[in-house]
Write a structure and sequence with these properties.
This protein is of the alpha/beta class. Helix content is about 25%, strand content about 25%. The protein has a ten-stranded mixed beta sheet. A hairpin with a 5-residue loop joins strand 14 and strand 15.
Amino acid sequence: MRPLTRRSLAFALAAATACSLGVPAHAEGAPGGRVDFGRRLQPIDGFGFSEAFQRAAVIHGLNGLPAPKQKEVVDLLFGRRAGAGASILRLGIGSSADTVYDHMPSIEPADPGGPDAPPKYVWDGDDGGQVWLAKQAEAYGVKRFYADAWSAPGYMKTNGTDANGGTLCGLQGTNCASGDWRKAYANYLVQYARFYRREGIRITDLGFTNEPDITVSYASMNFTPAQAAEFVTVLGPVAAKAGLRLSCCDETGWDGQRDYTRAIEADPQAARWVTTVTGHAYSSPVTAPQPTRKRTWMSEWGPGGSTWNENWDDGTESSGFAVVQNIHRTLTDGNASAYVYWLGASVGATRALIQLDGDAYHVSKRLWAFAAYSRFIRPGATRVAVSTADPALEVSAYRNADGTKVVEILNTGTTASTTDLALGSPAGHARAYLTDGGHSVSPVAAARAHGRTLSVDLAPRSLTTVVLR
């Protein structure tokens, strides 16, 4: 009698949800797709964001939010019960000689007297608010901290400033009167990680360049693919001795990163030291894997636009729906092991996940698009094979280290529907979460597991996250 009661209750809940989503309750037909949890694809390291350029200080600093609001914002970014559950924090390694907002202060702002002189490091224990934020992240269980430099200090470069491009002195093609700064820059980067260790934060991943292919008016430094590979052979042993994973090369576009990836792979010494290939998705989107067997991260992307946008589906790049598609394609087309958004929270007409506004803040649907993946797909998960017969659906699936399984279903169609997915093993218990214009990773009774089949009711233009236990 008890199994019958449970089944009746499940049917009633499913019917109620189907009506609320505009989906007629009906018996499921032949499976419209398949999830093979036994066919493993790439590992997942996590999902994250950055608060570089003193954005963390806007949350916590002198002009930051009131303490209760700080806690709310941090919980939205890192909390797994009602927030995004981010598992990676990308830190900006500073190079500026001043502390002006939107600059990242250097740990060695003045030339110590040449590349062979004893370094004169300084540390304020704050690092533009990033130390505080890193400690908050760690309290939420974050273990992956990726520190990346936009530039070396100006005195180490060909142009004498940390902005406007320039190249690290000592690399092939440079001729600097000040000498060869390659080893000094390598030591500089590792010292940054040591300062964080002093604060109780273990930086796990280290990058030495950001968008090396372009010259911009803020902190920037140019490397050709050959120069990047050359510097890796200098930095690699120093970073490895300090227990740091080395990444390269955060090129502006995913296609352009291929040239850097090939240069690393072609140099046995460089390939030995690089653990993770990192690329951005601005000048070209993620459409295919990088030419490497190393793990790859999409280490920075944020939508364009000039206004703050909280909408789910308005046809713009900054809508929540567009961000979901970006995440999905990065993981499935690019086989990326991590997705790192730019930024978590910021001010003004930002495309960050959260807008900071004086003593208040505002949350975009981009946060919930991100949360639908990050909260449930945890570090150590593996993406698994999926096929679907419905061209309106974009589906991916993951198996967590704890045995839980996650299916992400993006319905790009304008009508509600039901999909049946065949599973390679018993489905177990299914819980569904809906994200669309009226829901933000909201629990709904939209998924039914029976035998080796998972049936899910889908609202139009929505993301449904199903967790199987």
